[in-house]
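Technical note accompanying the year-one report. For the benefit of new consortium partners, we illustrate the data format agreed upon in the data management plan: each record pairs a sequence with a structure-token string. No post-processing was applied to the example shown here.
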Amino acid sequence: MITLDRLVNVLGGYGVRLAWSSAPRSAELRSVVIHEGERVVVGDVLLAIGAGSLGEGIRWARSAHAVVVLTRESAEPLTLDEDVGVGAVMVVDETLSWSEVAAVIYGLVLEGRETAAGRGPTDLFALADSLAEAIGSGVVIHDRLLRVLAYSRLQQHPDPARVETILDRQTPDRLRALFDARGVFAQLTGSEEPFFVAGDADHGVTGRMVVAVRSGRELMGSVWVACSEPLDEPARNALAEGAHTVALHLLRSQASADLERQVESELVFLLLEGSADSGTAASKLGLPQGGLRVIALQASVGAERDAALLLAFDRATTGFGWSRPGRSALAGNTIYTVLPAGPASTARRWVSGLTAALPEHVTVLAGISGAAAVADLAAARQEADECLALHEASPESAPPAYDESWDDILLQRLRTAARAGRTPTRGPVAELRRHDRAHGTDYLATLRAWLEAQGDPAEAGERLGVHENTVRYRLRKMAEITNLPLDDARKRLALMIELAAADIP
């Protein structure tokens, strides 16, 4: 089930426009029908395929008690009122085929309650129950990464491995290693027939019957049946047929999820680019107008980025549980998520939750903007990018947030300018640096400690681990080497900035 508002927003990107409506945008749509001549059909969305005119399409919709009718452009003027008998009229562009329209609408309306993008529960559990009943043993359905998608309620004497897998929502590492050593994954890649995997008491496995779930040559997942010996022929056939049904379900769910991700990404980019329509985009995404943070996130496995990044984006747009607080888009090698989050701790928990959902060997780096209104999200994106760069420099720390780390960001900007050769090559700091390098002195460190101690030689000495008289002596020697106007407040400030930019320890 989806709302009329959702249908209008998604189809608008495919060449279908809302021509007229008296129905509320919150009207719920649960079914799709096509006119079938004399046969009476009833549904919320009617595809007026073959209608000779707008009027004929509306008559078909009225007969079907439809909330919305989709029809082709018509030469007749569109003059409708609330008594027309249909809630909304949507017009399909001539360049768009009915088959394309039907595929999108069926995916949205019929799979709206089970999309992989996190809009609601899925009937894969019902399918697992049905398959378990036909076979007579417990069933677990995995995706291609061995994460648990669904499992049956039939758990007669479940072995420890099945219980652990269901509780962890994925195949534990020790079982992965066992199955890999036995060539199970290689057989899944190359076989379309169910095969038996013998039990292993040390790993708590009584035995498994396994079959790949495929779409053409693509491996989409697998179905695992707990059993102590190979299934008989009727059960094997039921398992093979069940795998085909699971594949169809995953294809529909994937199409629905990909469609939603595309629409969501386009709207998120409108927000991050500061579009004039950003307020409308936020409303379509279900985001508030204020109290938002932008999270910039990157994921990698060693030097390899693409696979980990796509996996992280999949998890970010799949959600945790059955709902998602944030809305995400993928740009280059960075995932941007707009998240309703007042305190920075809320955004960090989101990052932690995403990281926990990824394999342990994936490294995640993230930066968090300050809290912002919708109109300020373009600036917030830059803040998130700078915090991401800060986290990359110190990956062992927690993801930084701009409102807590603005000082580090400022220093990072200064260091970037310094690395680009934009610091003075002459002047007190440059001359003292050359002297330190040539003679092994610690004048720059002493100057920095004195400035940070606001001119207190005793405190500066404590910072350096030397006597305060040593600090005074060094200052006198520095003044002999270069012009050191420490009595000028503006020049003291300039010295501190240059030392910070150079990041002198």
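Partners are asked to follow this layout when depositing records. The chain has 18 helices and 16 strands.
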